[in-house]
Amino acid sequence: MAKEIRVPALGESVTEATIAKWFKQAGEPVKADEPLVELETDKVTVEVPAPASGKLASIDAAAGSTVNVGALLGSIEEGAAGTAPAKAADAPAKSVEALAKKVEAPGAKAEQPLSPAVRKLVEENKIDAGAVAGTGKDGRVTKGDVIAHLERPAAAAAPVEVKPLVIPATPPVAARAPARPADATREERVRMSRLRQTIARRLKDAQNTAAMLTTFNEVDMSATMALRNQYKEVFEKKHGVKLGFMSFFVKACIQALKEIPAVNAEIDGDDIVYKNFYHIGVAVGTEKGLVVPVLRDADHLSFAGIEKTIADFGKRARDGQLQIAEMQGGTFTISTGGV
Fold first, then answer.
1. Calpha distance 308→46 (Å, rounded)
2. Which of the residue ranges 77-81, 175-179, 311-315 would you say has the lowest mean pLDDT?
3. Res. 203 pLDDT band, cuts 50 70 90
4. Which of 31, 52, 107, 124 has minimal Cβ neighbours within 10 Å of its Cβ?
């Protein structure tokens, strides 16, 4: 019996998504709840899990296509074993010979397992993980190793042919200054993800419609720093999470919002709507851009509750597991702690 895979609800006002990639090919076996396809919206990246175990019978929407909520992505044939992605070699002797050559090849090393974050970085930059020198335990490749590999001077790497990407027409914008002929050949044009496009568009909208003001205020953090240093080790042992500065900032913001409720309000037509609750947005940086998950009813959370929730947000944001609903409804945002 075939089980359909459809685009899930993506949150209020989000009606479509772009298929970033499929993790499986048609005919391959899948397990229930195993990530099958990655969807990218204007706000977040979402992984759609397999609804059942079996064989991925069909892929009805290819990577790169735009799909609406509820659209058919593919189907799973329940109970089917699936076909192996690669056939065994026909000639055993050749297999043994190839294996021997692989073992004897200079510079060859055993393949190390990669963490999800490292694997994602390797795939996005299309690099050979075997060419990255690992500094982790037992020679394991870390995220820092991959970043260091990418930052090596271009002259040290083998020449790679860069094909220009065709960018669809966009609304007229001010033309940038033309690059010098000597520099033009060294440029590379890469299409922005939907998330990056949304960030850029909203920053430009804010610049065009809001009064831009930058102000700096110094605060004496001596007492806070002393308190944190005094209890951070005991705090981590007791709660299993580090005591950072963000929990202090959240508590301070809540106190300020209670004293000045107009800051925790919004204008709706001719009315001012005062929020009698405190949903604090905390900016989290990811490889694909900045996202702002929300600490709901933060005034009811303890220091440990705040730190645990922020740590969970950070991990799931980097793994693309945040839900749209978790980034909506904030009444106040802390974009950066400044430390």
1. 22
2. 175-179
3. confident
4. 107
Environment class of 142 (CB within 10 Å of its CB; exposed 0-12, middle 13-18, buried 19+): middle
Q: Identify the structural domains of the chain with CATH numbers, from first to last.
A: 2-78 (2.40.50.100), 106-156 (4.10.320.10), 223-334 (3.30.559.10)
d(CA 106, CA 78): 45
Tell me what pLDDT residue 122 has. 78
The maximal CA–CA distance of the chain, rounded, in angstroms, is 82
Burial classification of residue 141, based on how many CB atoms lie within 10 Å of its CB (0-12 exposed, 13-18 middle, 19 or more buried): buried
User: Which pLDDT score, from 0 to 100, does residue 226 have?
Assistant: 95
